[in-house]
Automatic annotation (TrEMBL):
SMART domains membership: AAA (SM00382)
CDD domains: ABC_PhnC_transporter
Name of this protein: Phosphonate ABC transporter ATP-binding protein
Recorded GO MF terms: ATP binding
Name of the gene encoding the protein in the UniProt record: phnC
Organism encoding this protein: Muricoprocola aceti
ABC transporter domain ranges (all copies): 4-248
InterPro entries reported for this sequence: AAA+_ATPase, ABC_transporter-like_ATP-bd, ABC_transporter-like_CS, ABC_transpr_PhnC, MetN_ABC_transporter-like, P-loop_NTPase
Keywords: ATP-binding, Cell membrane, Membrane, Nucleotide-binding, Phosphonate transport, Translocase, Transport
Length: 269
């Protein structure tokens, strides 16, 4: 059974902009899939439809065997606790400590009172610390988030998502604000989490070479349509040009290129 399924999904913003045009795909549990495509292709819209941060205009979406497109608030809250999200700009509470931000991953499972009062069990605190250790952030646990580097902040974002005990993590441009070295650290952590915890990862990326290095499957989106869905080996130059609607020679197509040298190069937009 797929963990996520889109069936004929379209999204029209403000009755004007067709961001998604009748897309269908499904993810199996434990997959690591990247979505690539030019700016405005609809990548973020796909991710946000997965947990209904955005409502699809047409079509059906299933998560973990349940149709989410028709769910009421309470059921939807349950879906959101099972889908962690990682953002380009981290979305942390900067004035709070690393530990507090990670514990926020549990808010969806708490009563409003316990959440507002910041009441967490010893077990939850130990779990949060263990996750921080796995992400090499133990030494930063009691620092304020505004004291951290971008790469460290993104690792806190990942830790918060794992604290939710999700079945799937949605990553919206997780490395777009990071330097090549920090980008590699983040992608390595995501891959490890995917492999060791069997958490399905759906990752929006601008960098074609990163998508090719880390994913077993890539979905190429352009103009709100899926124009490629397959393994990195099948993603040839012609297909990349089709996805990016470009004949630009700057497109990164060589899988064997050194990632450090190329990660900050963007596919042509
Ligand atoms: N809240 C919104 N209201 C109106 N139009 C929107 C909204 N969000 C996105 N769009 C439009 O929908 C289309 C798809 O946007 P989306 O953000 O999903 O693309 P993207 O591939 O993630 O782009 P980028 O790589 O630049 O983040 C674009 O034309 C965008 O301008």
């Amino acid at each position: 059974m797929p963990i996520l399924q889109f069936e004929n999904v379209s999204k029209i913003y403000n009755n004007v902009t067709k961001a998604l045009d009748n897309i269908s795909f499904s993810l199996d549990e434990g997959e690591f899939v990247s979505i690539i495509g030019p700016s405005g292709a609809g990548k973020s819209t796909i991710l946000r439809c997965c947990n209904r941060l955005i409502d699809a205009s047409e079509g059906n979406i299933w998560f973990d065997g349940k149709e989410i497109t028709k769910m009421k608030k309470k059921e939807l809250r349950n879906v959101r606790t099972k889908t962690g999200m990682i953002f380009q700009h981290y979305n942390l509470v900067e004035r709070l400590s690393v530990m507090e931000n990670v514990l926020h991953g549990r808010l969806g499972q708490k009563s409003t009172f316990a959440g507002m009062a910041g009441i967490y069990s010893e077990e939850e605190k130990l779990q949060a610390f263990q996750i921080l250790k796995e992400l090499d952030l133990a030494e930063q646990a009691y620092k304020r988030c505004d004291e951290l580097s971008g790469g460290q902040k993104q690792r806190v974002g990942i830790a918060r998502a794992i604290m939710q005990q999700p079945k799937m993590i949605l990553c919206d441009e997780p490395i777009a604000s990071l330097d090549p070295k920090s980008s590699r650290v983040i992608m390595d952590h995501l891959k490890k989490i995917n492999e060791t915890k069997n958490i399905t990862c759906l990752v929006n990326l601008h960098q074609v070479d990163v998508a090719m290095k880390y994913s077993k499957r890539i979905i190429g989106v352009t103009g709100g349509k899926i124009v490629f869905d397959g393994s990195p080996e099948r993603l040839d130059t012609a297909t990349i040009h089709k996805i990016y609607q470009s004949s630009d020679s700057e497109l990164i197509t060589d899988v064997n290129v050194n990632m450090d040298e190329n990660m900050n190069m963007r596919a042509a937009i």
